[in-house]
Specification:
This protein is mainly alpha-helical. The protein is built from 22 helices and no strands. Helix 7 packs antiparallel against helix 8 and helix 9 packs antiparallel against helix 11.
């Protein structure tokens, strides 16, 4: 993987101090506000800490890795979580899975598979940026409905990075072309995770919550789920590409100066790594039978890469973007604290009743936006687990279909507004081709537009198939 350079010129000491003081002042302001009766003291302190940390992240006043560690320490310092609970999520199964998936990207690049993937992609799609990017967006979204979105992201991101480096487009220089692709890949992959039950843990979780809420009377089968969700997944793919094309269209018409030589026959290391990848995918598909978490086959894969000597573990560690991984760990830790402290439930109970009596589109959009907001601060599975116990009773009281509300949750929690929101965006951020501010400028309008598209799609498509 290419060395990641600084995203911006070093900020002045005065600028750093001002941003830090503003962040601290905002946190203290939240802390000093009267605490609502329905919000726990821990939840109140967490919202103050969250305001402080998120502003520091977005302003990039200090290195994001340092801010991430400060988030964990803040949970302990403010007596929101005990030390064990605050730091444990940094080594949770989800975070460790992301660690190993990013390591996959290093392996792909080092053994030459990334170059081979890119060669065949350009051979099929051509170098015209409009055609290539559209095919890439649709491909990432559809494949992420079956494979984990982090897996698809790491494969494609590390296939493109060597191309941009060969064009002289290095990280941290603000080039529009690599930024366009480095944002398109993770957002397209994230937008596809709801397409089938295999796409992410939030999908079966939503069905499980629905089944329990209905007393076992409502269930959705594997193929029925695909029939309901997958067509909308295709629409989100094209919409994602369209939004990024409008907001971040590259000046270049094609990838000029890219001369990828035919990689020729696969080398021994490439064949070995590819075989390990295939076995890993098979084990992921067999997860229901084995009962293994995604991280278990991933750990076996790292052993499979390093054991035969195809790549050294030291090389993987040297090339690994540790800072981005730590940031993801902090995001998970804050998300767990949102659940444990009651802060997330408080926000839901305050915000969602505002939708009562509003038009159907507004209600669905409001619920969708809240799901996306939560998913930007915690894992999408946690967001689904938090919102559905509140939105399902609301749906029943408002004479809405509980089934449609449940099926909407995994869809709308696929769209996030902060880099920390999901593994694909963390992986792409690790390349250094965009800052958090760059990300928000694109991700927030992308999220708002995708929510509109999804709500309209479900209100039009689902009645046609007799779902609502």
């Amino acid at each position: 993987m290419a060395d990641v350079e600084s995203l911006e010129e070093p900020a002045s000491t005065k600028s750093i101090i001002i941003k830090f003081i503003i962040s601290l002042a905002l946190g203290i302001l939240i802390m000093l506000l009267p605490r609502p009766e329905t919000l726990t003291p821990e939840g109140h302190r967490l919202l103050a800490l969250l305001t402080f940390v998120v502003f520091l992240w977005v302003s990039e006043a200090v290195p994001i890795g340092a801010t991430a560690l400060l988030a964990g320490a803040g949970l302990i310092f403010l007596n929101i979580q005990p030390a064990q609970a605050a730091w444990a999520p940094f080594a949770s199964p989800a975070v460790m899975f992301v660690l190993m998936i990013i390591m996959f990207g290093v392996v792909l690049n080092e053994v030459g598979l990334a170059n081979r993937i890119m060669y065949n992609l350009l051979k099929f799609a051509g170098t015209r940026i409009k055609r290539l990017s559209l095919i890439l967006a649709v491909g990432c979204t559809i494949t992420s409905s079956v494979f984990h979105d982090a897996t698809i992201t790491v494969i494609m991101v590390f296939a493109f990075v060597p191309v941009f480096m060969s064009m002289g487009l290095k990280p941290g220089q603000g080039h529009r072309l690599p930024m366009f692709f480095m944002l398109l890949i993770p957002l397209s992959a994230s937008a596809g995770g709801f397409g089938t039950l295999l796409g992410g843990g939030r999908n079966p979780l939503a069905l499980e919550v629905l089944n329990k809420f209905s007393g076992g009377t409502i269930s959705v089968g594997f193929l029925e789920y695909i029939f309901i969700q997958f067509p909308i997944c295709v629409i989100t793919a094209v919409t994602t590409w369209a939004v990024l094309w409008v907001l971040l269209r590259p000046e270049e018409k094609e990838l000029e100066g890219v001369e990828l030589a035919d990689p020729g026959p696969m080398k021994g290391a490439e064949i070995g790594v590819l075989v390990v990848f295939i076995i890993t995918f098979v084990l992921w598909f067999m997860g229901d039978l084995t009962g293994w978490h995604y991280s278990v086959p991933a750990a076996f894969a790292i052993l499979g890469f390093c054991g035969p000597g195809w790549i050294s573990f030291r090389t993987i560690c040297d090339k690994f973007p540790w800072e981005s991984w730590i940031v993801f760990g902090a995001g998970v830790s804050l998300g767990v604290a949102m659940l444990d402290s009651g802060a997330g439930r408080y926000l839901a109970e305050v915000c969602l009743p505002l939708l009562d009596g509003k038009p159907e589109f507004v209600v669905y959009y409001g619920m969708s936006f809240f799901g996306s907001f939560l998913s930007s601060l915690m894992s999408n599975s946690a967001a689904v687990a938090l919102m559905l116990p509140i939105t399902l009773p609301m749906a029943e009281l408002m004479e809405m279909s509980p089934k449609s509300v449940a099926m909407m949750a995994p869809m709308t929690t696929s769209f996030i507004m902060l880099v920390i929101g999901c593994p694909p965006t963390i992986i792409a951020y690790s390349t250094g081709y965009f800052s958090q501010v760059d990300f928000m400028k694109i991700a927030i309008p992308w999220c708002l537009v995708l929510l509109v598209v999804c709500v309209i799609s479900m209100l039009v498509y689902w009645p046609l198939i007799g779902f609502i």
